[in-house]
Amino acid sequence: MKPQVWLVTGASRGIGLAMVKNLLSAGHTVIGACRNPDGARDLWEIQSDYKSRFRYLKLDVADPATIDALGAQLKDETIDVLVNNAGVLKGAGETLANLSFADVTKSFEVNTIGPMRVTRALLPCLQRSANPKVVNMTSMMGSIGREHGGGYYAYRMSKTALNMFNKCLSLEFPKITAIAMHPGWVKTEMGGATAPTEADDSVEGIIKVASELTLKDSGRFVDFTGKSIEW
Ligand SMILES: NC(=O)c1ccc[n+]([C@@H]2O[C@H](COP(=O)([O-])OP(=O)(O)OC[C@H]3O[C@@H](n4cnc5c(N)ncnc54)[C@H](OP(=O)(O)O)[C@@H]3O)[C@@H](O)[C@H]2O)c1
Predict the structure, then answer these.
(1) Closest residue (by CA) to atom 40 of ligand 1?
(2) Best substitution site from 140, 155, 190, 225 to test ligand 1's pocket, by max atoms within 8 Å of Cβ?
(3) What domain range is 36 assigned to?
(4) C-alpha 161: how far from its chain's center?
């Protein structure tokens, strides 16, 4: 695969961190965006190993000022693949009667509006690429059609809305391949220790699928093996 420039949000841990490492091993150039660069010890170490192909920048996807600052810092650069990976799972186990609306608001801020703002801020960078792609890290839990046990209102709703953002993006920008990606149930802080998929296996699949999908696939909802997921 030709080396490309990838920007990954939520690069400090979990799937984002594993993706940064995998992309660098494969020869790509990577920008890791994270909420707290001063505490991102793993990213400091990666930078010392990959000085010419990796840097990390501050980005809180719920803070428009840091998004604008990131856009300004990168305004003359090219990004081939933007991975909107940063996300939160709030309110697990809550019912409608006892859920926190602050959790619902926060989930939409981070999981839905964050990717919208980041994508808008980085559009000029993407539009400089010959084959730009946006991977919106969603979840099967956002599928309405799939049988599921309910609950997780905030998380599910924010990811369903992210899927619609992905679809709208694909229609407004026919030269950008926009993919809503379910990474599997992955062993991370969010996925928990009993998750069946290792982060390395998930990101290997995501990178392969994202690299192989083309404009004709734009707007699709797929998993890390490339399988379509019901809306
Ligand atoms: N793990 C799974 O089984 C699973 C399944 C389906 C979908 N997903 C999705 O995959 C993505 C990554 O999940 P994960 O399992 O790696 O989760 P994780 O281990 O909890 O990591 C979440 C990442 O998002 C970052 N983040 C949270 N809020 C942020 C904000 N406001 N601004 C910037 N970064 C923020 C965190 O940064 P800090 O270190 O600063 O907190 C961290 O790097 C998420 O979108 C998640 O919804 C995961």
Answers:
(1) 35
(2) 190
(3) 5-223
(4) 14
146 contacts: CB under 8 Å, gap ≥ 6 = 140, 229, 230
Q: Give, for ligand 1, the residue of 7, 8, 9, 13 to mutate: max count of ligand atoms closer than 8 Å to Cβ.
A: 13
Does residue 16 lie in a domain region? yes
**Which residue shows structure tokens 């229609």?**
171
Residues of the chain short of pLDDT 70, as ranges, are 1
Asked, for residue 62, whether it belongs to a domain, the answer is yes
Residue 231 falls within a domain, yes or no? Answer: no
Q: What is the pLDDT of residues 166-210, one digit of tens each?
A: 999 999 999 999 999 999 999 999 999 999 999 999 999 999 999
- Say yes or no: CB of residue 191 within 6 Å of ligand 1: yes
How many domains does one find in the chain?
1
Question: Quick one: pLDDT at residue 92?
Answer: 84
Within-domain flag for 230: no
* Residue with the two structure tokens 């928990």: 192
CA distance 25 to 19: 10
* Cβ of 142 less than 6 Å from ligand 1: no
How far is 199 from 14, CA to CA, in rounded Å?
Answer: 7
**In what side-by-side order are the strands of the sheet with 177-182?**
54-58, 29-34, 5-9, 81-84, 133-137, 177-182, 221-223
CATH number at residue 198: 3.40.50.720
State the pLDDT at residue 148.
77
Question: Which DSSP helix (H) or strand (E) runs through 67?
Answer: helix 64-73
